[in-house]
Write a structure and sequence with these properties.
The protein has 162 residues and is mainly α. 75% of the residues lie in helices and 0% in strands. The chain has seven helices and no strands.
Length: 162
């Protein structure tokens, strides 16, 4: 792969600055987060359709558990606990969906560029979708750096053989 084609390597996933994502999610009471997630899954399904993520199923569970949580808070159900059962369902669904998104990104990069990506379990568990956004914002730079490293390694190997 030449330097020119390497510089044109681009991953077709929209980038959103993480602080902007957090701010807009807070200001819109989480609505922007759902819109961002829908678009992200659309992008991932477009670039890697082999492991299609069924958005409507995931969103049905996420939105239903979110609304149930609000209803439980409004009615005072489970007020003796810090977190209610609907919040637990939402968080587990969010984490499983985030893991599926991360795995699809890993598979795509492995198949397309023959590169392995390692993700932080800590980042996934504690930051979920915000960690995914952080990783996506750095994905193109990571791919470019790793491909340059591979090219240098191949050139050194060829030089040693000659």
């Amino acid at each position: 792969m030449s330097e020119e084609s390497l510089s044109k390597t681009n991953v077709a996933i929209r980038k959103t600055r993480t602080p902007i994502l957090v701010l807009l999610s807070v200001v819109t009471f989480g609505v922007y987060w759902y819109i961002w997630l829908w678009k992200l899954i659309t992008d991932i399904n477009t670039i890697y359709p082999k492991h299609y993520i069924h958005r409507s199923r995931w969103f049905a569970v996420l939105i239903l558990s979110h609304l149930t949580s609000f209803y439980m808070m409004y009615k005072g159900i489970q007020t003796e606990f810090i977190i209610n059962a609907a919040d637990i369902v939402w968080e587990l669904t969010h984490l499983i969906l985030a893991l599926q998104i991360l795995k699809n990104i890993e598979r795509y990069v492995k198949e397309e560029f023959e590169l392995d990506i390692k993700h932080s379990i800590f980042g996934w568990l504690f930051f979920g979708a915000f960690y995914i956004n952080y990783r996506i914002n750095r994905l193109a730079k990571y791919i470019k750096r790793e491909l340059k490293w591979k090219i240098r390694k191949l050139k050194r190997e060829q030089a040693c053989q000659n």
